[in-house]
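Appendix C reproduces, verbatim, an entry submitted by the partner laboratory led by Prof. M.T., so that reviewers can inspect both the input and the predicted structure.
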Amino acid sequence: MKSLFVLAATLIAFLVFAAFTALQTGYQVGEKVMDFSLKNVDGKTVSLSTNKSAKGLILVFTCNTCPVAQAYEQRVMDLDKQFASKGYPVIAINANDAALSPGDNFQAMKKRSADRKYSFHYLTDETQQIAKTYGATHTPTVFVVQWDGADFIVRYIGAIDNNAQDGSQASEKYVANAVNALLENKTIATPTAKAIGCGIKWKKA
């Protein structure tokens, strides 16, 4: 009887673990990410491996229209200015469905990039497959990835900092701290932080 009880408890624990694992979508810290090829606002195709001299990348899933993404826009621009020359440039990706959010169509992306003088690539994820593969659900969400041999490995996932309204009042600058730790070959103190923002506008089935 005792062995049956142990077997049943083990089976239940396994099923709970399996269900929890199934609910987890997208990449986790430490995993290898797939490369991609997406259209930039200049019409050219950009991949993770486009910049062979980079040590890694700061991937920001963002958009034109979300108020939270707009509040973080200058901070994204500042991250590129701070880290591109050190080997960690920004790549911004807009996965919103333009049919549901016309302000995020390709022409609007081109205009915002030009008006705001983005120094980084701004890519359109028209099929939304990259956002789904990575597990991005809100704008903005950041994935800091690092070259490791021939692969890109996720080192940080989540928010840019802990103050969505005012970056000058942020007490934790998660992305900057993560990249600085990588540059100094140190352990990232906070490898994940909950991203807060607008939900990505997914295509209707």
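The chain has one domain: 26-199. Additional entries are available on request from the coordinating office.
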